Amino acid sequence: MTRRMRHMFAALMAVFLCSSSPLAAQGAPSLPPATLIADNIQFDGTSSVAANGSVEVFYSGTRLRAQSITFDGRNEELRVEGPLTLVDASGNVQVFADFAELSGDLQNGVLQSARLVLDRQLQIAATQIDRTDGRYTQLYQAVASTCEVCFENPTPIWEIRARRIIHDQVEQQLYFDNATFRVMGIPVFYLPRMRLPDPTLERATGFLAPSVRADDRTGTQLRVPYFIMLGDHADVTVTPWIGTGTQTVELRYRQAFRNGSLQADGAVSWDDLSDDATRAYLFADAQFAMGGGFILDLQAQSVSDRGYLATYGFPDPDILESFARINRVRRDEYIEAYGTLYQSLRDGVDNDVLPTRVAHAEIIRRYTPGIIGGTLTAELEGTGFYRFSTAESVGNDPNGRDVFRVTGELDWRRTEIFGGLAATFEGALHGGIYSTQQGGVLNGTETRLTPYGAVELRYPMQAVSASGVSHIIEPVAQFVWSETYGNDVPNEDSFLVEFDEANLFSLDRFPGSDEREVGPRANLGLTYTRSAPTGLSYSLAGGVVLRTDEQGQLTEGSGLDGTQSDFLVAAHVRFNDHLSIVNRSLFDTDFDFTSSELSVFWRGERHELVSSYTFLEADLGEQRPEDIAEWAFEAEYGLTSGWEAGVDWRYDFMEGAPSSARLSLGYANECIDMEFFVSRRYTESSSVDPSSRIGFTVSLAGFGAGREGRSISRSCRG
Predict the structure, then answer these.
(1) Rounded CA gap, 647 and 677, in Å?
(2) DSSP 590
(3) Mean pLDDT for the stretch of residues 89-113
(4) What three-state secondary structure class fits 611?
(5) What pLDDT, in 10s, does the model give residues 154-173?
(6) CA dist., res. 398 & res. 630, Å (int)
(7) Do the Cβ atoms of 480 and 456 come closer than 8 Å?
(8) 8 A C-beta contact, residue 308 and residue 317
(9) Is 293 helix (H, G, I), strand (E, B) or coil?
(10) Strands 247-257 and 260-270, how do they pair?
(11) HSE (side-chain half, CA atoms, 13 Å) at 231
(12) In angstroms, rounded to a whole number, what is the distance separating the alpha carbons of residues 458 and 409?
């Protein structure tokens, strides 16, 4: 092949490249060589060349296939006989045609009976395709769709028919003239002009998938998100609610920085459902990598009133948390400092008497002593709890009590093996200084000191069968002594005590530093584990705590009160990755349950089920005046041909009625993703009324992500 022919085929590839930027016509020396393969190649002097039979041209990863290629040097024309196929280097752009005729500089031309396929999703068929300036592709009498068209189903689910479609490969945009949107061949609406991003564009200003929602409290609304690019590293999404009833605008702002990211979500509503004519919320999160391995986390959460989030279906946590936190994690060190502002949304809770302002700093380091061996952990922390109320504390009512404390702990632990017996020796010393204001009888400064001593004995026994199944039995006995020296201090962080297999053999089961478990006690337990290479595996753990005398520290609801605790039983069952069952229960000698939790997870080829039952006995010490018994059930089932059904159900046994329910039906294939749901919230409070909601969401593949960014492919059966 002559040098001129190599340049010609290199330019041919550049013309067909539908990538982010076209290749402008350049001088011959700057063009890399192309490779031409054909059954027959004929030269006519130096002005023309013809290649026939299984012609293939390769250029910078791009491949062109055709029946014949003829270049007429005298008229500067190039003819390509099809059927021809062009695939760019990325594989995201493909062109199919029966015939192509291009100008000598190959920046302009015509393709007949052609199809343009973008990102293997969007297919545009046209009677003719014109190339202009190596950038614009104009398709006449065009039909665009991402649906697979098969012989048995010749009509796509949706399509856009237009007199002309222009593809700007630099801006990655599609422009439609006289466009008609059709569903199952039926015209739905007409637009004289329309612009959409092509599938290769990851971010572009424009509309996102809309959704329709009907609520008996907020009315029927069409949610139309509009995405706005603010450069390469920031964007904002504005979602107005258009319809009857209330007026709402949602906002989302995102920005990426060199060392972190920021996202803020919020909404503003105007309604007559509460005393406030204008209602709003704002949730913002940011994280930044600082020098020296430190991570800075920022969070802000605010809402105009307690019922706003639940009424409009926004995320509705029980407690809002705004904080600034910095921390660093290393192999033998942990450092953290934060300031937090809390706001409870629970009905009847007075935020003025809650410790809603908390400041905290701590450092934990781990050492290996050279003389005594083992592991030594040292911890130092300072914490302040502040209330907005200025009233003096009375009895058990904290009112405006403020507390600042500095606490520290040293914990040494060493394990020795004696034959098959593993013995662990542990000693700890915890101390603190507490300063209390507006605390009533607890006012002033107090110092407390709590030493610990413990010995733990384990004797694991294992048996392995010929099939590889392993059985492990391990009895454990731990003997602990501790005592607190000093006067009473306010309890700000040690109310909710959980008793489970994770802390059965702990020196202290209080979650915070204000209360310390005291007195001689024996923690006794037994575990059995069956592990199999394939098939059924399960474990069973049980335990009890025995004390020499009642200390009166722990409530009945914790299961740890009295000289003998409730019996703890925990079971885990797993069958491959398809079925798992977890149960944890606390009960006394009369088999009266203090708490019980049962969770089931079951996954198959077409279904997924998660269900749980929770029971908690009433405990005034944990601010739980009534028993709690709730059943939660969530399931998804894949129906035939892309259909999927789901259910989400919560039932309150104490009320004898459901608390919430949701049914959904979705459909997805290679060109459409839609979901219909109906939900009901049955709970009622002073700020939230029961409500029902119906919603519908639909998105077209090829013009944005569907639900949860799903991508489904399908092909015709041949």
Answers:
(1) 9
(2) T
(3) 73
(4) strand
(5) 788 889 999 999 988 888 88
(6) 31
(7) no
(8) no
(9) helix
(10) antiparallel
(11) 7
(12) 26
Mean pLDDT score of the chain? 87
Annotate 94-150 with DSSP letters as a single string.
EEEEEEEEEETTSSSEEEEEEEEEETTTEEEEEEEEEEETTTEEEEEEEEEE-S---
Predicted confidence (pLDDT) per residue in 228-280, tens digit: 999 999 999 999 999 888 899 999 999 999 999 999 999 999 998 888 889 99
Q: 284: which 2 tokens? A: 């913002």
Neighbour tally for 267: CB within 10 Å:
21
Determine the Cα–Cα distance for residues 449 and 485; give it in Å rounded to an integer.
Answer: 5
What is the pairing mode between strands 295-303 and 247-257? unpaired
Spatial CA neighbour of 661 closest among 628, 633, 639, 703? 633
Q: What distance in Å separates the CA atoms of residue 531 and residue 473, rounded to the nearest whole number?
A: 12
Distance separating alpha carbons of residues 667 and 229, to the nearest angstrom: 30
Cα 281 to Cα 623: distance, rounded to the nearest angstrom: 29
Return d(Cα 84, Cα 15) in angstroms, integer: 14
What is the b/e burial string over 415-441, where b = at least 16 CB atoms within 10 angstroms of the residue's CB? eeeeeeebebebbbebbbbbbbbbbee
Structure token pair of residue 716: 């015709």
Torsion angle of C-alpha atoms 545, 549, 550, 554, degrees rounded to 10:
-40
Phi, psi for residue 257 in degrees, rounded to 5: -115, 170
For the chain, the structural domain boundaries read 3-202
| DSSP structure class, residue 197 | E
pTM exceeds cut of 0.70: yes
Spatial distance between the Cα atoms of 652 and 683, rounded to a whole number of angstroms: 10
Q: What is the DSSP letter of 184?
A: T
Residue 89 to residues 69, 80, 202, 598: CA-CA distances in angstroms?
A: 21, 20, 18, 54
How far, in Å, CA of 708 to CA of 380, rounded? 44
**Cα dihedral angle (500, 502, 508, 510), rounded to 10 degrees?**
-60
What architecture is the 3-202 domain classified under in CATH?
A: Sandwich (2.60)
| Contact yes or no for 222/240 (Cβ under 8 A) | no
Where do we find the tokens 């459901």?
658
pLDDT given at position 10: 47
Q: Which of 522, 544, 540, 543 is nearest to 531 (CA)?
A: 540
Strands (DSSP E) along 295-420, which ranges? 295-303, 319-330, 333-344, 357-367, 375-386, 402-418
Distance (Å, whole) CA 54 – CA 73: 23
Among positive and negative, which fits the CA dihedral 580, 586, 588, 594?
negative
104: amino acid identity, one letter: G
Both tokens assigned to 369: 């002593």
Strand-pair partners of 658: 651
